[in-house]
Amino acid sequence: MPRPSVPPIRTAIVGTGHIADAVHMPTLRSLGADVVVEAAMDVDTNRLTAFATKWGITAAYDDLAGLLKEAHPDLVIICSPPVFHREQVLAVLDAGAWAWCEKPPVLSLAEYDEIVAAEPDGGPYASVVFQQRFGSGARHTRRLLSSGRIGRPLVAHCQTTWYRDDAYYDVAWRGRWTGEGGGPAMGLGIHQIDLLLDLIGPWSEVRGHAARLARDVQTDDVTTATVRFETGALATVVSSAVSPRQTSYLRIDCEGGTIELDHLYGYHDDDWTYTPAPGTTPEVIASWKPPGPDEPSTHLPQLTTLLADIRAGRRPATSGPGGREALEFITAMYKSAFTGRPVQRGEIVPGDPFYAAVNGGHDIR
Ligand SMILES: NC(=O)c1ccc[n+]([C@@H]2O[C@H](COP(=O)([O-])OP(=O)(O)OC[C@H]3O[C@@H](n4cnc5c(N)ncnc54)[C@H](O)[C@@H]3O)[C@@H](O)[C@H]2O)c1
User: Fold this and answer.
1) In the predicted model, what is the mean pLDDT of residues 252-280?
2) CB 336 within 8 A of CB 208
3) What is the CATH number of domain 9-130?
4) Residue 161: left (phi > 0), alpha (psi -120 to 50), or beta?
5) pLDDT band of 113, cuts 50, 70, 90
6) 3-state DSSP call for residue 15?
7) Which fold does the domain 133-301+325-356 belong to in CATH?
8) Which one of 47, 61, 102, 106 would you pick to mutate in the ligand 1 pocket, going by the greatest count of ligand atoms within 8 A of its CB?
9) pLDDT, tens digit, 9 for 90 and up, residues 123-154
10) Which residues face 210 on adjacent strands?
11) Are 269 and 136 in contact (CB under 8 A)?
């Protein structure tokens, strides 16, 4: 039966750089009549004009206030540098629109909580782009874990070992506490950390290290952490910008089998493997097979879910408490690295210097 026609979600893009052009626009266009991009904004007018021309967007603005006042979008996708996310998300909510903000969401827990406080009950809400949670492989693994079919998670490894050269850090906002909030854990590893926490969280205690080993940056270029979860499970977390053989790797050893995900920037079902513990019956192993269809962890499944949330007036999974977990974990890891002691989940509250800034005002020695 044809779907009754519903008006498209009227969307605007803020920040018309790489991710907006290479990922968000193709994703939005793939959704056909469900969504229409009516406006774009960037402070770099050359880039804005090229983007608007390429994608046929007639309403182009060099200030967000003008866009919100004239275009009245339902949804604003924020793809500007992280230092602008807080003020732009707040402006979008104030104008009565939903915000979908690229990671890292903001520069501190204080900024994040300010946004949550600005969300009215029933929406609009501000959510974070955490596309790695939304592929069919993660959805399947989440079901395997929550159903108990693969047993309790016991030990995990979460690795974002990537390679970013000095040229990558030439962009003014990268590699600076006040520009990106942190090192590769904030800028790169946040996706895999968010996925780990979503699958086996909540965590209870973290011990971290941070070091600047090879890049000319103000932040670290490598962090390591050991984590205890509320269930008692243990994990290691590594985020690196100096690793020539790059991988995004997640491994969860459960009572009944080992779950592994090995990919780089996004996965298919085939990138997940499930290795049974000795004695597992063939019937049980067969029940671990992803049912299909394979939906890779691009921005598409998260955007589709978000559009349904907007139409239903429902809080998105990566908004409010659900979008805060990775930021709190990373902040706690840095607090441990800078103070030399373990940090408990929930201890970083207003008044703590690490609440106001991920590095708590410290610098890497
Ligand atoms: N989800 C992912 O997998 C993923 C991947 C890459 C980047 N990102 C995130 O996307 C965001 C943008 O990254 P990028 O690689 O596209 O960077 P980019 O430098 O290519 O683009 C940023 C754009 O924002 C514009 N800009 C600067 N100040 C602005 C302002 N005040 N208002 C509006 N626009 C402004 C710049 O002129 C530029 O066009 C970052 O937060 C980044 O971490 C996410």
Assistant:
1) 97
2) yes
3) 3.40.50.720
4) beta
5) very high
6) coil
7) Dihydrodipicolinate Reductase; domain 2 (3.30.360)
8) 102
9) 999 999 999 999 999 999 999 999 999 999 99
10) 223
11) yes
Cα–Cα distance measured from residue 224 to residue 309, given in angstroms and rounded to the nearest whole number: 35
pTM over cut 0.90: yes
pLDDT for 3: 55
CATH 3.40.50.720 domain extents, the chain: 9-130
Q: Is the CB of 245 under 6 A from ligand 1?
A: no
Q: Which residues pair with 128 in a beta bridge?
A: 101
In tens, the pLDDT along 304-351 reads 999 999 999 999 999 999 999 999 999 999 999 999 999 999 999 999
- C-alpha 94/C-alpha 103 separation (Å) is 21
Q: How confident is the model at residue 365 (pLDDT cuts 50, 70, 90)?
A: confident
CB-ligand 1 contact for 80 (6 Å cutoff): yes
Residue to substitute in 41, 80, 132, 264 for testing ligand 1 pocket (most ligand atoms within 8 angstroms of CB): 80
Residue indicated by tokens 């139409």: 311
Residue 228, phi-psi category: left (phi > 0), alpha (psi -120 to 50), beta (remainder): beta
